[in-house]
Amino acid sequence: MKCSPALLFAPPALLLAAGLAAQTLGTTVDVRAAMLEQVNPATLGIWDVGNNAMSETGGIDAALMTEESWARLSEAAARLDSASKKMAEAETILSAAPGNMPEGETAGASMAEIQSYIDADPDGFRAAARDLADYAANLSNAALNRDADAAGDLVAALDTVCEGCHAPYWYPEQ
Question: The whole model's pTM is what?
Answer without folding.
Answer: 0.80
